[in-house]
Amino acid sequence: xxxxxxxxxxxxxxxxxxxxxxxxxxxxxxxxxxxxxxxxxxxxxxxxxxxxxxxxxxxxxxxxxxxxxxxxxxxxxxxxxxxxxxxxxxxxxxxxxxxxxxxxxxxxxxxxxxxxxxxxxxxxxxxxxxxxxxxxxxxxxxxxxxxxxxxxxxxxxxxxxxxxxxxxxxxxxxxxxxxxxxxxxxxxxxxxxxxxxxxxxxxxxxxxxxxxxxxx
Length: 216
Fold this sequence. Notes:
The protein has 216 residues and is of the alpha+beta class. The protein is 26% helix and 31% strand. Strands 2-5-4-8-9-6 form a 6-stranded antiparallel beta barrel.
């Protein structure tokens, strides 16, 4: 059986040092994705829609993984990668302290060999097992290119992420770069390396990544 070690292949994108910004170039990669929006007055931790979308995405990711591992010809094994989220707003400037107007795309990285037919087969199997839930219609395979970005490992509660991002402008300035999240239309990117249901909030590990570009 062939094994694809995604964690090793993309280690430079998923293992930054805590508290230290770094520049990375993120190539085109295939993801399972689902889009949604946090309900007014809610947050990712309390949103029923977010919870349902997360469960649907993981359900498809594991269905696809075991389908590849059990297939008769050319079986393939690979890890289910961490949950990721792109976050943005359509009404004003993105604010990490105000999550109840956030739109999101949740994502899980896949091996490059996965195609549309594989995703469709796995989705049919998931529907056969769980029934046809509304969120399943929004699951899809998508290729995403993030390009030049700055990232940092945040350790602690999600609410303290702004503290980890405070130094980003000063880090970018010597290279003539600026943060593209907010007024330039970039999306705040979080990669969740810890299970919030099993981890002390003070020890949560989350990669924070922002696309960057030349200053005007």
